[in-house]
Amino acid sequence: MMPEAKPERGLFKGDSLLARALRGAGLTIFGFGWSQGLRLVSNLILTRLLFPEAFGLMALISVFLMGLNMFSDVGVAPAIMQSKRGDERDFLDTAWTIQVIRGALLWLFACLLAWPIALFYKVPDLAYMLPVAAVTLVIKGFNTTRYQEANRHLRLGRITAIDMISQAIGVSTAIMLAYLMQSVWALIISGIIGAIAELIIYEVFLPGKRNRLRWEGPAAQELIHFGKWIFMATVAGFVISQADKLLIGKYLPLDQFGVYNIGYFLASFPMLMGGVLVNRMLIPIYREWPPRENRENFLRLRKMRFMVSAALLGLVAVLGLLGVWLVEVLYDPRYAMAGATTVLIACMQVPVIIALTYDQAALAAGDSKRFFVLAASKAFLTVACLMIGLGMAGLIGAIIGQGVAMLAAYPVVVWLSRHTGAWDAVHDATFAAIGVAVVGLCVWANGPALVALASVVN
């Protein structure tokens, strides 16, 4: 374990884990704010250049690309971050080779699935749009492992700056092409251009040795052994994150589905920011501060967990109270339904936020099997509650069902986190009480808009 920085140097200075974690958190939040600000600006501009159906169509394409990506995830990034060999050249080049092969196979699967998907959703354009959009998966397969190497050691300054630049290129390209083409093809082509820009920028500006095609037996065996449970967990993760779009996309007309995605875009800000913080930072922190090791580590993690949960619940409260107003101010009347949708989705994130920081403890300990069990439980409950909610109360029932699913999964969260020593009953009880109050206030403040939403979509 690396020595702690001397107090006189300040919390943010030095090379200790605490200093790197605090700098990393600040950079991650700054980078995330930049990313979401760009997304919001582009969203506002694109909704005026394009039409609601275009957003519904692009949402379907994105869901299936994400599905292919997650259904084939072998855990290269978390493996590099947690493995004892995570700094060795042979291990890194083997991981990169697996990543390249995977990207090519994903494109082939996209080509095979395009026509059946177009038939299922009765959208013929998907048959040729999906293979073109899937070219991004091939490009991303060549991204250097130097990104994960920097993440492993919480050296986040340069990768945050690079992410910001590549996102700006992607957004500006999408706006320019949308203005010129007035078509969903603008979003597809800009995605490809953005992926190429990201690949080039990573290769040029991240320090370290370039990856080479390499297959070392022991490294491949370790990656595959760790990755088999990650693969199944990411399949479950896809269901958790995309089941709403798959089921609601079939249930709603394409224009209403596009509006739903606008609401989801606004409301998902707290959950996405929490996810970025967790994925970038918690495996290194748990690896160097195992909560089972001593009480001091546990209390350090409690302090971190309280800060993260308080910040995210504060954002939920803001979006839950102001969601309807934000949509009225930012969008034209075609997207009015997105306001109440924003409120509901924001409120349903409370159970997710409370349990957000636990599952990475299992990955840090190399226990991808228990990580999968938790993900699979959440996936099953998400689908079941979504379908029950849709059947009972349409769109509103589906959104509420997602929150109920996360509540029902909490016993499995406790099981996993107790095994790693990470479970904190004080934290969970405190923020459960705060969360109930926040949800009640948001529903009370937006009652008329929620009633109006129910009358429109049912």
Give an overview in words.
The protein is mainly α. The protein has a domain at 252-458. The protein has 20 helices and no strands. α4 (89-121) packs antiparallel against α5.
Short description:
The protein has 458 residues and is mostly helical. The chain has a domain of 207 residues.
Helical/strand content category: mainly alpha
Percentage of residues assigned to helices: over 70%
Which regions have little confidence, pLDDT < 50, spanning 5+ residues?
A: 1-11
* Overall radius of gyration: 22 Å
N-C termini distance: 57 Å
Characteristic key phrases:
458 residues, single chain, 0% strand
Task: Itemize the secondary structure elements and their pairings.
Layout lengths: L16 H33 L2 H20 L4 H7 L6 H33 L4 H8 L1 H6 L5 H7 L4 H25 L3 H21 L11 H35 L2 H14 L1 H20 L6 H36 L7 H10 L2 H5 L4 H6 L3 H41 L1 H11 L4 H21 L1 H11 L1
Helix pairs in contact: 1-8, 1-12, 2-4, 2-5, 2-10, 2-11, 3-7, 4-5, 4-10, 8-9, 10-17, 11-14, 12-13, 13-14, 13-19, 14-17, 14-20, 17-18
